[in-house]
């Protein structure tokens, strides 16, 4: 009965629905592009921001609900939970993120003006939660996951606001604010929720033919739509064009590299499904911080290879080390796919900033690197505004100064995410959270009415089985 959802889940949902409805009623209104009162005969409907933002919103939505959902259904006896808990957590996270990210808009405007772009930003915040979810999948209840989303979203919103407003960085693909934050927040949570008996594996921590196929399907959805994820918030035009090209090139090079590494390091020279499901995506992260910059196609290709290689060896060597030596049981290896690659991407972004000059970019350099634009009162600003109408004043930073701010953002984001994850883990560890026992981990039967052909009890192997014995499991 300690894991029953009969009271806990309905109470949590009811309370949060009342809170969200009240906040929507008081603070949320339509954006100008969604307000019928502002439409007239002189308004061109096709100029509505919907037609600019909705394609990216739809693509990222597929990644969130289908891509992540299928990818997390890789355990043989945890397919229901992986996919459905992803669905539940994502639906709640987007609602909550609209309010938490909108709080700062309310601070300045007195209202949260809702448009598709707000939903898109909320989806990015939701992606942060789902990445963190990967570190604790199989070991947590839906109540714990909802609580994690409840606490992670506002922490992320504050960090995002502080970094963008005060440190002011270039991070078009979210390598710092999405991937690094999500990774180290998730690692902080799993550190607190450490289970010593799971270090040698769990009898149900296995895959099967059907679950691996479903997980690869999730990988394919993420792979196909990743260019939209990286380019959604870049400047329209050539910046966005480069972002799409670089993402595709990075993903392509990381994919073929993943196949090669998988075959080389397999003792029998065969391919491993876990490599195909995860390592192939590394290139999408490693090009993220510099995705809209003039880094050249060959650099994007090289970043894909570097990210894939780091991710592959991270899964092979670093994940077991973290579990045995540092009490970090990273279930999906988010430190490899999002942490290591996020650090590579951030470093590449810093290099691109240091190399950026007007000879390569022309006047548009001050639009891409907006914080390097001349400040108000500088005669050069007026000259640039004649060349680029609408160019906003910047801070007049040099390339070296901007690079230092990027470094500051990396360390402050990691620190804030880690502390936030540790505190959230302490809350999730409370007895009322319906946490599964070690024996019940990775088992759909704990929280679902399962069909008649599902029976995880057929596996009668002790919890402390070793790796050699696990190969005998049918």
UniProtKB/TrEMBL annotation:
Location within or outside the cell: Cell membrane
One of the record's GO cellular component terms: plasma membrane
InterPro entries, alphabetized: NH4_transpt_AmtB-like_dom (IPR024041)
Broad class of where this protein is predominantly found: membrane
Domain Ammonium transporter AmtB-like residue range list: 20-434
This protein's UniProt keywords: Ammonia transport, Cell membrane, Glycoprotein, Membrane, Transmembrane, Transmembrane helix, Transport
GO aspect biological process, one term: ammonium homeostasis
Pfam family of the protein (one): Ammonium_transp
Family statement drawn from the similarity comment of this UniProt entry: Belongs to the ammonium transporter (TC 2.A.49) family. Rh subfamily.
Regions crossing the membrane: 12-30, 54-75, 87-108, 114-138, 145-164, 176-194, 206-226, 246-266, 278-295, 301-318, 339-356, 403-427
Protein name: Ammonium transporter Rh type B-like
GO MF annotations, alphabetized: ammonium channel activity
Membrane topology (UniProt): Multi-pass membrane protein
Function noted in UniProt: Functions as an ammonia transporter. May play a role in the elimination of ammonia in the gill.
């Amino acid at each position: 009965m300690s894991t029953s959802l009969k009271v806990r889940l309905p109470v949590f949902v009811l309370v949060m629905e009342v809170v969200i409805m009240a906040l929507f009623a008081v603070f949320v209104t339509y954006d100008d592009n969604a307000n019928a009162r502002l439409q007239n005969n002189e308004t061109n409907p096709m100029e509505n921001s919907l037609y600019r933002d909705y394609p990216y919103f739809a693509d990222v939505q597929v990644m969130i609900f289908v891509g992540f959902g299928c990818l997390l259904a890789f355990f043989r006896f945890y397919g229901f939970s992986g996919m459905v808990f992803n669905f539940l957590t994502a639906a709640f996270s987007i609602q909550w993120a609209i309010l938490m990210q909108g709080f700062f808009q309310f601070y300045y405007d007195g209202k949260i003006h809702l448009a598709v772009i707000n939903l898109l930003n909320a989806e990015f915040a939701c992606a942060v939660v789902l990445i963190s979810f990967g570190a604790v999948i199989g070991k947590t209840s839906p109540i714990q996951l909802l609580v994690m989303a409840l606490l992670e979203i506002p922490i992320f919103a504050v960090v995002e606001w502080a970094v963008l407003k005060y440190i002011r960085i270039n991070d078009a693909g979210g390598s710092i604010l999405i991937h690094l934050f999500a990774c180290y927040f998730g690692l902080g949570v799993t550190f607190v929720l450490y289970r010593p008996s799971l270090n040698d594996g769990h009898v149900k921590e296995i895959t099967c033919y059907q679950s691996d196929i479903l997980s690869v399907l999730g990988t394919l959805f993420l792979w196909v739509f990743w260019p939209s994820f990286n380019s959604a918030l870049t400047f329209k035009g050539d910046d966005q064009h480069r972002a799409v090209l670089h993402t595709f090139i990075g993903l392509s090079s990381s994919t073929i590299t993943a196949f090669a590494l998988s075959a080389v390091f397999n003792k029998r020279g065969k391919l491993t499904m876990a490599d195909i499901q995860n390592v192939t995506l590394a290139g999408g992260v490693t090009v993220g911080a510099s995705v809209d910059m003039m880094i050249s196609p060959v650099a994007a290709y090289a970043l894909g290879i570097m990210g894939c290689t780091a991710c592959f060896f991270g899964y092979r060597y670093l994940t077991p080390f973290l579990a045995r030596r540092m009490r970090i049981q990273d279930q999906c290896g988010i430190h490899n796919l999002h942490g290591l690659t996020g650090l590579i991407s951030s470093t590449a972004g810093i290099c691109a900033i240091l190399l950026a000059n007007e000879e390569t970019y022309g006047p548009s350099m001050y639009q891409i690197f907006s914080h390097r634009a001349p400040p108000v009162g500088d005669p050069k600003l007026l000259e640039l505004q004649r060349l680029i109408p609408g160019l906003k004043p910047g801070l007049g930073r040099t390339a070296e100064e901007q690079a230092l701010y990027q470094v500051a953002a990396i360390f402050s984001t990691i620190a804030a995410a880690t502390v936030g994850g540790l505190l959230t883990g302490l809350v999730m560890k409370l007895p009322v959270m319906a946490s599964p026992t070690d024996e019940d981990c990775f088992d759909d039967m704990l929280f679902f009415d399962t069909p008649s052909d599902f029976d995880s009890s057929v596996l009668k192997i002790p919890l402390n089985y070793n790796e050699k014995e696990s190969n005998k499991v049918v």
